């Protein structure tokens, strides 16, 4: 089965480095279709050129987060959810593509899976083989998240019975975005399911999952959720002290060089 990976991304100094790292992981994954959704009013040349040269099968979309929903300079990062509108745009494309498919292609899509991969996390290749066969929603541990070494679904007798998390364990689904995949069939048969851009901190994943499954339906992967195969890494914001100082003297780095 095919894996459709939806990645929200936005312009910043480390964007091309993040996309480079991510694309090099995906190049090792068979049958992967990358849906890149820019948080921008139009496709940027950086991402357009990057994807064209990537060697991957991809779809390039864009959807600007409305200003009242976007973090402003100086806001704490937890204030508003990130990537919600972009993931919804990816889902819209998938549903449209799924509805238009016919015959063999439609049959193949019945088995496909959808994963939401942020551009800054670290993904093992094994993770994609774990998620590849997903009936409704599959789940697994995520490392370095939520102020913990890892968070994970706790499995008893092959079923998820609760979640190991340090914070608000009573959320409907206390799972990071990186910790689940959903079948395309489930996305298609629940056309209303989407991410709530107004969700309060920590509830973005639940806003999508609670309309799709119950805890009982979850399919535990990664050796019954005992293996960490994805890490919620975050890239440090580069300091531009010297650049700013040089720029004041007219000696800044050539703006025509893409970084
Ligand atoms: C955590 C989760 O891992 C995210 O999946 C979740 O969206 C986020 O919290 C949240 O609560 O909204 P975190 O590392 O804090 O992740 O979020 P980022 O990695 O900064 O952003 C998630 C994705 O959205 C990234 O792919 C990023 O490129 C994208 N993003 C971020 C945008 O498209 N626009 C923005 O303004 C910011
Ligand atoms: Mn992140």
TrEMBL record:
Top-rank taxon: Eukaryota
Residues reported to bind UDP-alpha-D-glucuronate: 8-10, 39, 82, 87, 118-120, 232-234
Residues that coordinate or bind Mn(2+): 120
Catalytic center residues: 205 (proton donor/acceptor)
Site label Interaction with galactose moiety of substrate glycoprotein, positions: 151
Subcellular localization(s) per the UniProt record: Endomembrane system; Golgi apparatus membrane
Similarity remark: Belongs to the glycosyltransferase 43 family.
Protein name stated in the entry: Galactosylgalactosylxylosylprotein 3-beta-glucuronosyltransferase
């Amino acid at each position: 089965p095919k894996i459709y990976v939806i990645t929200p991304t936005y312009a910043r100094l480390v964007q091309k480095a993040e996309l480079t790292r991510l694309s090099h992981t995906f190049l090792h994954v068979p049958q992967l279709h990358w849906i890149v959704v820019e948080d921008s009013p139009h496709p940027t040349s950086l991402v357009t050129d990057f994807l064209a040269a990537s060697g991957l099968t991809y779809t390039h979309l864009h959807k600007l987060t409305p200003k009242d929903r976007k973090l402003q300079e100086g806001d704490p990062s937890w204030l508003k959810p990130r990537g919600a509108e972009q993931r919804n745009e990816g889902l819209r494309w998938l549903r449209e593509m799924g509805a238009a498919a016919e015959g063999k292609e439609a049959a193949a899509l019945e088995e496909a899976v959808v994963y939401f991969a942020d551009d800054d996390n670290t993904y093992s290749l094994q993770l994609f083989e774990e998620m590849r066969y997903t009936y409704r929603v599959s789940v697994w541990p995520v490392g370095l998240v939520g102020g913990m070494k890892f968070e994970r679904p706790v499995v008893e007798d092959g079923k998820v019975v609760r979640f190991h998390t340090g914070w608000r364990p009573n959320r409907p689904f206390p799972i990071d975005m990186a910790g689940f995949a959903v079948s395309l069939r489930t996305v298609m048969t629940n056309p209303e399911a989407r991410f709530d851009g107004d969700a309060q901190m920590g509830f973005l994943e639940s806003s999508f999952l609670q309309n799709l499954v119950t805890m009982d339906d979850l399919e535990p992967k990664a050796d019954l959720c005992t293996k960490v195969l994805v890490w919620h890494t975050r890239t440090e914001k580069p300091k531009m002290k010297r650049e700013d100082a040089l720029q004041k003297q007219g000696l800044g780095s050539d703006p025509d060089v893409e970084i």
